[in-house]
Design a protein that fits this description.
Elements (H helix, E strand, L loop, with lengths): L1 E5 L16 E10 L2 E10 L11 E7 L5 H14 L4 H16 L5
Antiparallel strand pairs: 1-4, 2-3, 3-4
Helix pairs in contact: 1-2
């Protein structure tokens, strides 16, 4: 399995809090038909998610390799489907793109 750690820190800096200082809140997996796409774990400081999502992390472990561009496009599609504002999506993607550029192929 390919591991990918994605820290959603909507504060500056975007990935400052190490996972070991957060409390695991839950886990699940994303399946498509008969295949597992990824397993997910949600972490937060003191076991509570703040209204601003500070000190919150989402750990994704992908079952298959996926290109960074495909992942970014799928993320954008899902945010649009969920009804988030275009300006918010663009701001979030601007933070995610440099993070994923530094990571090896997932």
């Amino acid at each position: 399995m390919y591991k990918w750690l994605l820290l959603f820190m909507l504060s500056i800096p975007a990935f400052a809090a190490p996972l070991q200082h957060l409390t695991k809140l839950g886990q699940g997996e994303m399946d498509y038909l008969f295949w597992t796409v990824y397993e997910a774990e949600l972490y937060a400081h003191n076991g509570h998610i703040s209204p601003t999502y500070q000190n919150t992390a989402l750990k994704l472990t992908y079952a298959k390799s996926i290109s960074k561009q495909t992942l970014l496009e799928a993320t954008q599609d899902q945010w649009e489907y969920l009804g988030y504002r275009s300006q918010d999506i663009e701001r979030w993607l601007a933070k995610l793109y440099p993070i994923w550029l530094r990571c090896p192929l997932i």
